[in-house]
Amino acid sequence: MTAFISEFTLSADAAAQGPTIAIKDSIDIAGYPTTGASRALADAPPASAHAEVVQRLLDAGWRITGKANMHELAFGMTGINDYTGTPVNPQDAARIPGGSSSGSASAVGLKLVDAALGTDTGGSIRGPAACCGVIGLKPTFGRVSRHGVAPRESTLDCVGPFTRDIATLIAAMAAITPAFDAATAKRSNANANVAIVSVDADAAIGRGVARAVRVAEFASRVIELEHMKDAFDAGLAVINVETSRAFGHLVDTGKLGADLDARLRAAAQTTQTQLDAAERVRRAFTNAVDHALDSADVLVMPTLPALPITIEAARNGTSVIAMSSLIRPFNLSGHPALSLPIPIEGSTLKAGLQIIGRKGADEQVCAVAAHFEAALAAS
């Protein structure tokens, strides 16, 4: 299944019976190397200490069952990895599982674990969640500790959980960040004011989002959100610069996969002028999202603009960069964003409903998602 790079059982208490969780291989587990699913880091020494989120999970009684596979160095959207293998998409094995937290999403969707941790720098939790038909949360930037997470420095990256239900996601969040108010998050919010963001997405997915809002009986209106396209481009510039700084030296090893080698070489060409322009867009888009949330409790839109393409199409060169068009902007702005699976007409696959909240209001995002989940289950 290749959802895991390595499997083991780790708990604070050998007799622990808590929920199981897999940890993306960009997050340190003491005694195990953090390789980023890359041949270039295959000889990395074992981590000397747990990442803070790992230690918190163990302290809360969770059982870690292994290191989850991923797109090499967390720098890609497909999840295809010719070194460690490509995780299976639980919805359709012929399709990509999404990147970069592909193994985490796959393991949850295949019911190998109750939950998994991933990281999201440009949509890398929400994208795989939507591809694999599971729930994934990118918390507010800075809400969850990144101590012991690669890359060490990032203005975009967030650690967050994958689960099959909101209750387990809330439990995982309560474990990894001590200030998370689980009681508030569990309080299904039926009275939220929802703004449906008008975006370019497949018609069936757009109708699925509209149906979910209708079934949940939320008060809603359709809005335009300024600077989305500019924020997407700016997010690409920032991730290119920051990933090049972190991993660009590995190009000289000759051990990177062909796609990573090409992407890192291209990323190194990003200029300071492009980065400065991206930071201006970051401020403008953040203000636009904050302004939209002044008159709405959450924003909703599709997670991905289309269903995931096949592995064959990806290998044959079909571009996947547009996959992140609706998710990458919220890494730039830092707002919490959750992907919830929703049914769409004409397909056995589920798409993703993205729910975006105010900074620090991760609990409210979960509460709204809980109401969507209950309403859709009853429909």
Automatic annotation (TrEMBL):
Domain of life: Bacteria
Name of the featured protein: Amidase
InterPro entries: Amidase, Amidase_CS, Amidase_dom, AS_sf
Domain Amidase: from-to ranges: 20-366
